[in-house]
């Protein structure tokens, strides 16, 4: 507020009226000033929260009033950028630590009336929803963002759409994105992601003679990748190529980001019954096929605890009908491949009784990627342990899996669901 200077020359009565008028002006100016300051005050970001895992995240940021928001995507690395009016960030540093799909969170003032929030992802992602909402208690507003792991193709399509809409992306309908994969991508080759179980600090099971599961699974996965690559018809990726710890949801994320037509998770367990031996093929199911399958799923699902990074599963019911239908179709494909795989393995390696089983394995829960978990054998059995260390045996088993993939891929391509 500026300082007004008045001069007056006149009689006492006129002076009294003049000074009264000036006093009234000053009072009004003083009362109006705070309102003007409040309107010009920075937006206040009062809290920030993230929840989810490496496949799907929700981000919520609260403000003292409704924010004018613009958001867009950047690659190299993959980022979500949210531009705001000048904002004072009163956020707990613990709440912005990396978790799940989000690799880092940065925020600050850019000057010229703009502040920015930047979320860097572990890879390509999709924005399923971006909403500005009034808080239910009437105090302030929030932005709520749902993002999920996606393929490079999907991210690039969103970037192209962004360019057409002059820099501000439009939130896609969730049902329009889930399940866009090989069907809508004519250039897509049948893609297999091989997941060597365990790794890094999580060694997995240990054999009678000291064999460590994480080494067995990596050696076998490398052999299987080489055989699939030799066929020349597939794109083949591994979730890990070294002795590296990976969260279970990161393994699922990698499969989804590669638009995998098939995820094969490789394991080699131990069991108290020393005489039990042979390979087993598992698919996902909320209800285990037998107590042994449930016990195995419970052990494998604890892998994340080795690095103190466990995220609890919310076990929320699926409410989106399209997603539910995609899950059912994916499960049907998983069961079909498991049956084919058991048939091929039975001609080359030993199988346990009832070799096709199911349980609630977290690593098999991608809603749009057919997935199986293969237990190659039991390290608790001396004969199985010796086989798992044999290059000849690994070659036979890898060839059987390759044959099963060829049959499965041919059926998918014939049905128009793969390239």
From TrEMBL:
Record field: catalytic activity: Hydrolyzes the link between N-acetylmuramoyl residues and L-amino acid residues in certain cell-wall glycopeptides
Signal peptide: 1-38
CDD domains: MurNAc-LAA (cd02696)
Transit peptide in keyword set: no
GO BP annotation list: peptidoglycan catabolic process
GO cellular component: outer membrane-bounded periplasmic space
Keywords, ordered alphabetically: Hydrolase, Signal
GO MF: N-acetylmuramoyl-L-alanine amidase activity
Stored SUPFAM superfamilies: Zn-dependent exopeptidases
Hydrolase among keywords: yes
Pfam family, one: Amidase_3
Protein name as catalogued: N-acetylmuramoyl-L-alanine amidase
């Amino acid at each position: 507020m500026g300082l007004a200077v008045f001069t007056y020359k006149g009689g006492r009565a006129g002076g009294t009226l003049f000074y009264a008028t000036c006093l009234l002006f000053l009072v009004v100016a003083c009362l109006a000033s705070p309102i003007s300051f409040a309107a010009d005050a920075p937006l206040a970001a009062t809290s920030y929260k993230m929840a989810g895992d490496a496949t799907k995240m929700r981000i919520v940021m609260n403000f003292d009033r409704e924010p004018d928001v613009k958001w867009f995507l950047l690659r190299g690395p993959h980022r979500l950028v949210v531009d705001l009016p000048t904002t004072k960030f009163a956020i707990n540093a613990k709440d912005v630590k990396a978790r799940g799909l989000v690799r880092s969170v940065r925020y600050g003032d850019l000057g010229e009336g703009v502040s920015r929030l930047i979320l860097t992802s572990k890879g390509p992602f999709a924005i399923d929803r971006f909403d500005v909402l009034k808080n239910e208690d009437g105090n302030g507003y929030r932005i709520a963002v749902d993002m999920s792991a996606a393929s490079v193709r999907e991210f690039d399509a969103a970037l192209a759409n962004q360019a057409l809409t002059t820099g501000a992306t439009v939130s896609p309908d969730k049902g329009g994105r889930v399940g866009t994969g090989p069907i809508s991508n004519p250039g897509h080759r049948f893609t297999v992601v091989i997941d060597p179980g365990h790794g890094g600090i999580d060694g997995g099971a240990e054999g009678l003679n000291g064999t460590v599961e994480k080494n067995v699974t990596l050696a076998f996965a490398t052999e299987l990748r080489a055989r699939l690559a030799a066929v020349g018809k597939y794109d083949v990726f591994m979730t890990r190529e070294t002795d590296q710890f990976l969260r279970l949801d990161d393994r699922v994320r990698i499969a989804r980001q590669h638009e995998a037509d098939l995820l094969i998770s490789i394991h080699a367990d131990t069991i108290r019954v020393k005489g039990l031996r042979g390979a087993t093929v598992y698919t996902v199911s909320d209800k285990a096929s037998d107590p042994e399958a449930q016990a195995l799923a419970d052990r494998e699902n604890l892998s994340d605890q080795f690095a103190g990074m466990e995220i609890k599963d919310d076990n929320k019911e699926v409410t989106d009908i399209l997603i539910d239908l995609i899950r059912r179709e994916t499960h049907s494909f998983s069961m079909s491949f498991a049956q084919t795989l058991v048939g091929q393995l039975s001609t080359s390696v030993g199988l346990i009784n009832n070799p096709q089983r199911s349980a609630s394995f977290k690593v098999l829960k991608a809603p749009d990627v057919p997935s199986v978990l293969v237990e190659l054998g039991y390290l608790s059995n001396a004969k199985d342990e010796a086989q798992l260390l044999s290059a000849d045996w690994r070659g036979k088993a890898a060839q059987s899996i390759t044959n099963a993939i060829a049959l499965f891929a041919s059926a998918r391509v014939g049905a128009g669901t793969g390239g």
